[in-house]
Amino acid sequence: MTESDEVYSQGHAQSVVRSQHWRTVDNSAPHLAAELRPGQSVLDVGCGPGTITVDLARRVAPGGVIGLDAVESVLAQGRDNAADLDNVEFRCGDAYTLDFPDDSFDVVHAHQVLLHLTDPVAALREMLRVTRPGGVVAVRDCDYSGAIWWPADDRLERWREVYQAVARAGGTEPDAGRRIISWAHAAGAVDVTPSASIWCHSSPNERAWWGGMWAERILDSRIAGRALEGGHATREDLTAISLCRVTE
């Protein structure tokens, strides 16, 4: 099984990629920030449009960073985001078969990648292989069962139920966060440092951004198509979920 045999469960609708442009080291990889040093070589697996990749490149310059993703259209966005840098490049590649020799990088990073893979242990094993002795493999993944909100709303509970059903029907695990330690050990990691952090979308603008993004995504993305095709939701279900943000 290779990453190219799989299909990114959320797809690359504008509402999906827009959220990825928001990500930085500070808001999406705080566990890695203290490990970064000028001169390091870094591989960013599943880099998407590359905003974290670019941030990594600025922090380790003059060291080099490679952003790897399976989809050329988002790599093109990454190249645009890195137009003012000369220490970063973007390549099309496969998380299961990293095309690099053993011990190639000081740091290998993956954000929100393992939860979209049917064999996260195999991907972690490859990340460990290309990391130099004494280097760092840093991964962070969401845990959808850990999402909380107030006030309670049955439509948001239905949103989570639908998304989890779609993900699991595709052989992936939406509650990846709680499984990272066991996956890392299964991949052969012997020195594992667990941590946890949250995204807290609490201001009116943040709630509007997050809610608006998912209001679009639940109706017009690969998630919506798979939910309908798999019988996990009706069009009426998805419309009701989307309208939830109007009353927030």
Task: Describe the protein.
This protein has 248 residues and is an alpha/beta fold. Helices cover 40% and strands 12% of the residues. The chain has helices at 14-20, 25-28, 30-33, 51-60, 72-81, 120-129, 154-169, 180-187, 204-217, 222-229, 235-243, and strands at 42-45, 65-69, 88-92, 105-111, 131-140. Helix 1 packs antiparallel against helix 9 (204-217) and helix 7 crosses helix 11.
Quick tags:
248 residues, 11 helices, globular
Write the layout of secondary structure elements.
Blueprint: H1 14-20, H2 25-28, H3 30-33, E1 42-45, H4 51-60, E2 65-69, H5 72-81, E3 88-92, E4 105-111, H6 120-129, E5 131-140, H7 154-169, H8 180-187, H9 204-217, H10 222-229, H11 235-243
Parallel strand pairs: 1-2, 1-4, 2-3, 4-5
Helix count, per DSSP?
11
Main sheet: strand order: 3-2-1-4-5
Mean pLDDT: 91
Provide the β-strand percentage band.
5-15%
Indicate the low-confidence ranges by residue numbers. none
Fraction of residues in helix: 40-55%
The geometry reads as globular
The ordered string of helix (H) and strand (E) elements is: HHHEHEHEEHEHHHHH
**Radius of gyration in whole Å, from Cα?**
18 Å
**Largest sheet data:** 5 strands, parallel
Q: Quick recap of the structure?
A:
By secondary structure, this protein is α/β, with parallel strands linked by helices. It has helices at residues 14-20, 25-28, 30-33, 51-60, 72-81, 120-129, 154-169, 180-187, 204-217, 222-229, 235-243; strands at 42-45, 65-69, 88-92, 105-111, 131-140.
